[in-house]
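B., you asked whether I could sanity-check this one before it goes into the benchmark set. Here's the sequence:
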Amino acid sequence: MNPVYGSLTRCNDQTMQALEDYKISPVTGCLLGQPTTPPPSLLPFRRLLEHSHELLNSGKLRESIEKLPTLDMAQLKSHEEKRLAHKILAFLAAQYVWQNGDRNPAEILPAVIAMPLIEVSIELGCQPLLGHIDLVLSNCFPEKTQLLQRQVFFTEFIPSDQPNWLPFIEVTADIELSFCDGAKIMMHIINSVQKNNTKTAVECLIKLGDVISIMRQQLLLLLNTHQFIPDGCALSGLGGLQMQQLFMNSLIKIHLFYTMQLACVDEELFLEKEPGLHFITLKTLLTHLYSAFAHLLIEELDPKAFYCEMRPFLSGWSHGKISKGLVYEGVPDSVLTGAETGDLSGETIPKKRVYLGASAGQSISLQSFDAFLGIEHFKDVEKFFADLRKYMILEHRHFIEDLKQHVHLRDFVERSSSKELKTAYNSCVNELLLFRKDHLLIVEKFIIAPSKMYAAKVESLKSQGTGGTALDQFLESVIARTEAALIQC
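And here's what the prediction gave me:
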């Protein structure tokens, strides 16, 4: 194992830490709260990403990436700056590889992207490619609005100009936002168990079940027609005057930021003069406006668009023509991030690195619930979950590991004579069971069914997940073990 990555392992503590120590915000959960201002060295990379869709469509993105300057890693000082760098580099890496589509991927990632991406991944404890951390957690920011009942997000970047990215990313972010409440409730339950306070544990378990139910309803938005209209029907609860007000507020926001920037055409100079503001291009601001109205513009996430046009960007380096991996140019073979598979011991130089693609399984939410509720899966599933944790940032991985090590809720429930406690515990397990059954329906709609219709177009994915698993069998196993965790009252 690479010594830098290995040194990220901490000493075992005896208790759970505060949520903030796990990079879990009490307000936004695992989502970052707001966009990060890039340091000067990162600006050329961000500018390129902002214009990457046009370059992708013209087939000129690879050439533009290869002309980028060397990134000064010393300028990445804060955790947020490192997250931003990882996101931008990972987006560009995915676009570079898949510029020409699924049938003609690149097999070498140029050093200008590969070297800093490996370095920042080691520092964060995650992996050097586009993952859930980049697509959702560091990329989708909750917006405050009183005019819409549904949560609105600002999504900073999407991999291509396919508009279905927005509902896909933002529904996932909505689930992450709800998990924030679940994380706080779990900490209260842990405290209750330590104090042998059955009454409080019951009350909190009921609330936790409600949170999982809300997350399930958010997940189901991906299955429902017109799901991006407020209240589930055309503009209900949102009058014409309110629509105009929301639209005007967005335009005012664009005007305010953009006029401030007209006097400073030099971006670095702007950041020096106004360090508290984000330098935002007009295109980015218009994207912000579009994101705010995405739920009105897109009625339904299209399975064909998701499977054929979106999933290749999420597939990692483990499928199809790059099933043997990708060369990270300029990176010594001895420098590893801890999740590499493939032939790293052979005589071939340079080595190809195999990494799994992005998936919601890289979120901490469901694995946290499993660890907290004491749900145990079969060994092959547990191993796969452990592999997915390597794609999380270090602190998120520690949260799950600490729940596994320090929380003994299931033992507490089984030893108790309280029927109310067992019922409340089972309600959480049952809500998680329903969530997973509905997730299987979504997989069938967006992956399994399209794979039978469009497999020839996306030969590298077929009916496997971006993590490389046979999804239906895997999820059925997870569902079975979740159901087996119900306790007899």
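One thing to flag: Residues 3-165+233-249+279-306+320-352 form one domain. Otherwise nothing jumped out at me.
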